[in-house]
Model the fold of this input.
Amino acid sequence: MIFTVWAVLTLSFVMIRMMPGNPMGAMVENLRQSGVNPVRARELVRVRMAIDPTKPIIPAYFEYMVNFFQGNLGRSTWYQMPVATKLAQVTPWTLFVLSWGVFISFFAGMAIGALMAYWEGSKLDVGFTSFAVLMGSIPFYVLAILMLIFMAYRWGWFPTGGRVRAGVEPGLNYPYVASMIQHAALPVMSYLVASGIASLGMRGNSIRVLGEDYLRVARLRGLSDFTISTQYVARNAVLPLYTTLLISIGEMFGGSVVLEEVFQYRGLGFVVYQAVNQRDYPLMMGGFALITLVTVAALLFADLTYGYIDPRARGGKDESY
Amino acid sequence: MNPTDEPSDDMTDTPTDGEQGETGAATTDGDLSDAIPTGDGSSDATMTDGGTVDSPFEVVSEYEESRMDRARKYYDAYVYAPFAIIWRDWRARIGFTIVLFYVLMGTVGVAIIGAAEPLDGPQYLQPFNPNYTHYPFGIGEVSLGIWTYTGIWEHPFGTDIMGRDLFAQIVNSTDAILKMILAGSLFAVGTGTIIGAVAGYRGGTVDTVLSSITDVSINLPGFPLVMVLAALLEVSNPYYVGILLSVAAWGGIARAIRSQVLTLRQESFVESARAMGIPRRRIVFKDIVPHLMPYVVINMTNSARRVIFEAAGLYYLGILPYEDANWGVTLNNAQSVGAYNRPDAFHWFLAPMLAIIGISIGLILLGQSLDRVFNPRVRARHEKTTANEEVEAESEPSTGDMLTGK
Done:
């Protein structure tokens, strides 16, 4: 696990440094465009810049790694603040959207999947299956753009972008929370496309479980329908979705780059996008490291807990041929 | 392994015996290439005599099979039979038709419909505008009972802000997108299968090393990393773009294949192949991987879908450099001139979106039906429980897992 994190970080570091252009160039370009003469711009940038992006890659790498493991992520060249602070500012927003999106879409997916399995072959099943296939075929950003055009621009139900309405006092007061939810609603709904696939998975799993002999035995033993459906069917059908859910978290973090760009939602993805465009090395590394850590943690959690959830998975198959 | 010691001593004397035994072991995966279906290959008694080797029956059967026969057998086993099975499923028919339609669009369509030029029509012409029609091939107005042919639309999907025909833009992007899909899915599935199969079969140190590499690939921050790579490499060749998009995608496939192989390597046919001393490479790629073909093929359709999603997403954000327009670029163009706000520009978004959704519906349906075809175990179990069910009602299980588990 630690090896994985290290390897990913190193790969990211090398690739980021090899990108054409550097933070200085990006900033000089920006200043030049706003009318500052190039020589003056270069000087300004040199003064403002805390790191030296022209340093050779190997010393820079060791310096970064040492700092990283001491918890020092460096200073963002674009936002002019410590990377850790910037990430701490934006990540909660992404987590807010992401967790609601994942929660709602998987919950909806499981409920629909169970319904489809229960009334398998009926009109309802066919209808929902077609719906799920359609949902699975829509990239989330396409749904996002459609909702943005209609619900935000045309009908004005939701704001067109941003995290909260400007000028609302932050805190646990009604206008702030309401505005927060309103701004997050469209991004959260964009994740609903994931429910289609989840429901198909749940449907298939439930059908597979419904055919098992132990269910017949359970019925013969006279167990109540409730016990059978919760203890026997649901538990076994949800199992495979558990890993899927945890794996998809990492992927959704990556996808948040597109989603937050569509909605101009200033979360982690938005900041990473900015960092890539501005060649903000420390911020890019920080963002990548955070996404990697979350993915690794989710996978590790899945690996560690799966054995408890599904004892069949605890088998020793380490024999080498 | 130990119980087979004695017979294997006798077997290794004569190569023909090995061939024979392997045929017996491999019949399950449809490997009919060296078919000497003697059936008595399993009877150790005759073999230890060494009697069957020169039996006239075998000599004759070896000469009976010409190259033509063999080709026909391959065709039957690998092309005709699966296709015939697949074709019985309505999902496959629809999916296959859709994908074929896109392939035609990318090849023939591009040749017929020229590139989109600016000022081809008025700005923001609405789709299916009856005022802009023309009569191709000199066929004039024809009346067929209640319906009158009044020419076909000049701009079926309308035009964008510069008067470029959107239909031509969509059609002309297809071949680039198909190239990306092909390269990307082949790369992801090929790498994933090879690494997963080898890791799962070999076990031990090889497994540890390959699994670590797989883990790294899974944990790479996929989308952001592709952004960096795109800026780094500045590729615009669609084949390279496809591979670039799949750089972080093979890990999931490798992991799934590995866990499949872990169970398969315990099977008796693998054990017997091993006992006969068949080279490891042959066991992995001739005996084990054919059993996993369903997963491989399903993953192929899934990674194809993924490549489209990512490619269009990256082009939409304007991250990938481009030379020719494609669906994502069209979305990006529309967004960058603020077409969100213009009710009369909605078709500009809709056309590329429908193109993306259409091909992914085709791929999903194809993947699902392939899953059903290749999953007799699930189908059998299902048919046992609800025997009077009609066709469309089963077997998403592994598709579902695969779709989300990439």
